[in-house]
Predict the 3D structure of the following.
Amino acid sequence: MSMPRRAGGRAGHAPSLTGLAAERASGALLCDAGTVYLRDGQVVHAESPVAPGIEVLLTTGGRLTADNWREAVGRTGPDGGVGRFLVDSGRLSDAELEICHLGALFDAAYFALGHGSGPRGFQRGAAHWLGPVCAVGAVAVERETRRRGKLLDSLWPYPRVDTEPVVLRRPDGRAPAVTPRQRAVLALADGVRTPARIARELGRPAFHTLIDIRRLAAAGHVATPRPAGPERPGRPDPPARSGASAPPAADRGPAAAVFTDPDIDLLRRLRDALEATL
Amino acid sequence: MPGIDECLLEAMTVNGARGAAVIEWTSGLALGMVGEVRDEDPEATAAETAELARMAAEQRAFAALGAGGAKGGSDSGAGSGPDADDTDGEPAVEDIIVTTRTCYHLLRFVDTAFDSGVFCYLWLDRREANLALARMRLRDMCGRLALI
């Protein structure tokens, strides 16, 4: 798919993840929709306002209590090592910490490095309070970010469902059944909560929730927002974040672009919409 | 307490093991992989394997029976089923076994108390492996991954 605007960065001097990895840099790569932490050129963590942090993932599901978490943060000080403390104090196994950490890392990296978010600056020497857990090659992180974008587009190529409030919709009789995980998402879909907020309340990675939302939208269980302007499939909007700059309107394609790739689901839903107005 | 890599290296000590991985079935991401690779794109293979796990985990055909699960009125989709509570967490499916003429593929869901959606994958040479034994080894390893 198209992803032309990452490698070179913007304005000529913006740092790139691959460039920083090549010089084995350590620090925080500040992006529009998140931060990617490097240590000796390897990605050691990522954060995004869209993606629930590791503390949300571990405490919402009940794996750790808020007290456990406060204790770990209080005992380790500002220079990190919270992850190590949780394992050494017997709260988590190494594998649990690694599984949760890697899940949170790739989740946040998808938003920080994905379409619509670019690097803005690099804070050399900055380290994350979690401390070292796992390190992943920058190339692997970028490849996974691209794979995730393609996966979402293959499910339902309407990226606005990722950022808009989730609105329930009455599906037609042939819509695929809702899975237990999707049911939990639907239970929070009140027309106000966005997918990011639903993910946070469920204690799930945001990307996993986007997969469910796109599937639910494709099946007609939740509404696909009408494009405010014309929407171009395969070109997601930037994740919602205060301060993130919206793409210029001139960047959008012509109105007909919405219908360049009709499929059975879309046609069926169009039929339903027409019948509903009769 | 073992980490992902230790678990994978242990999996490779199972008789006939050719490869092992820890994969998120929810996203298709491989968190760790060891052993032989079957093709140039092991990550795509992991994602395909995750798709099989997802189908098994989410299809109602394999949902746990009992506890009032097998009622007549199937839920009509968007309505939030009142009996969603105990199917809401980890999948009811424990493991998935695929046999081919030359290989066994074992997938075992890992029970974590946070929303991980992770399974262990073990790929075995059929000539050397003992399927029943390998399944028990994998079950024990997955049990040791999480502290619960």
About this structure: The interface with chain A takes residues 1-4, 6-7, 22, 24, 26-29, 31, 43, 47, 58, 60, 63, 74-75, 77-78, 80-81, 84, 87-88, 110, 112-118, 144-148 of chain B (CB under 8 Å). Residues 42-58 of chain B form the longest helix (17 residues). Chain B has one domain: 4-63+86-145.
